[in-house]
Every structure is written in C-alpha cells, then in structure tokens.
Amino acid sequence: MAAVQQPVTTYHNAAPVSNFRKIKVNLNALTRRPILIYQQSVERARPARRAVAKPQFVGFVTDLIVPDEAAVAPRPQAFLVEQSPNWTLPTHFHQEHQFQVFVAGGGTIGKNPVERLAVHYVSPHSGYGPLISGDEGISYFTLRAVGDTGAWYLPEQREHLQLRIKKQQAHATLASQVTLQELLSLPQPCEEILIPPDAGGLAAWLVRLPPGLAVPAPAMGEAGGGRFYVVTKGSLLMNSEELPGLATVFVSSDEALVLRAGAQGLEVLVLQFPAAAATSFVEAMAAATG
Q1: What is the pTM of this model?
Q2: By the 8 A CB rule, do 194 and 206 touch?
C-alpha cells in the first residue's frame, strides 16, 4: 500500500509589490487537489498601484493577487480599480467568472445604480455594462477564481462572444449600512444573504461580527468554486495576522474558514463562485474544440 501523503502547509512572505501576503497550500491525499488560501490588503499592495490610460478606460489599478499562470486552477486574481470621474467603461465581457465589489464613489452599472458594497457577478461571455462613474469617480474590486486578461467590447467584438453558452448575472446591494461604532457595539453576529445559493453554487453573503468573536463562515462552501472574502470594516484575523478593511482573501472550496473578528469587530463580504469557476473556462473551451 502506498504511503498516505499528509497535508502540508507552506507560507511565502512576499514584498508588497509581489502582491501575495501569504499563500497557504495543502495537498489533499485523496484528490491531490491544492487547497489554497491567498490573502492581501490594499495597504500592502499600494506600491503596485499604476496609472492606466486606454481608449476605453482611464484611472488607476492596484494588483492584490496576481494569478500564477503555471499553476493548476483555481488561479485567483484580485485587483482594485479606481475609475476616473464621469468616465464610461463600455459594455464588454470576459472569459472567466467574475465578482465586482464597489467600495467608493458612485455611478451605474447597466441599469443598476451603484451603492457602497454593491456586489455584481457575471459569468463568462456575458456582456455587462456600461459602467459609468459619477463626479467622485468609482472604485471597485475585480475578483476571479481563475485569472483573465483584457476585455472584449461590444458590439465591436461581438464575433468573439460565445452565444450558445448559458449567461448569468446577479446584482445585490446591502439592506443596511453600519458605522464602525455600531459594529463595535453589535450584540450578536449578523448574516445577510445577498445572492441566494443556486444549484450551480453561486452565492454571496454579508457577515458582521462583534469584536473578538469567531464563527464558521456561511455553510455550503464545498458546493462552490472557491470564495473571496472582502473585509469592508473592522478586521479579520488570519494566520496570526490582522487584515484591515479592504483586505481580500481567496479560499478554495476544499478549505473551511473560521471568521475571527479583530478588536473593532468585523464586516466581511463572502463571495462564492459557481462550482464551474474552479476550472478555467478558456482551457475547457480549448480542450473541447481541440
């Protein structure tokens, strides 16, 4: 009988410009699939902030988690976009599953007004937009379980759009906003369902915790294709580190996360990808047509 391979954990401390704060990798002895935890804060990633000026977009981009193209999927990607005031990003699509979280400013995405912490999900080859920023500009995270580059703009690049595949979008806003003082005095944990779990595994929640409390993350993580956790207020304790507001954490579906609030409490978005997002749509299409 072959020896059973025990789970291992390795940590890689990266310089801020290298994007990953820590990467935890476990090997499952039965499936040999990687169990991944990537974490990074905007504060540490800020030196990577760069100006972008293109015909379709003007603003700044800060990479938090850069996908390892040599690794097997999932290969998470996270970056913060700061879109210039009164700018229109045209309707377009991407080739991988994507969440966006709006964290500052205002505007609209398609017909939906953008509020603080609004969440938008879009499946591969599903056109969305335009994304229009207001007088203060608009800032948002772009989060993917498998990294993608570029965008396909519509209608100019419609010939690249896969019309026969299922298209899916979801948009959610919070039922209420809280101040940091309200979070500090929260009497008990609160959980809000933003996108109800569906048969494919897509789901999203908002969780608020009083200071120092630890609770399991929302259930059903194994049904999805990995999760991003976005700290929006207070802090999240992870691997003996305190992650402040606007930190992001990606956790593969093989790992169950415990949410631990810091001294100021915790407000965190839990964004669960569909199960299909754990593998690359681009690679799957290439294999099917090759």
Answers
A1: 0.88
A2: yes
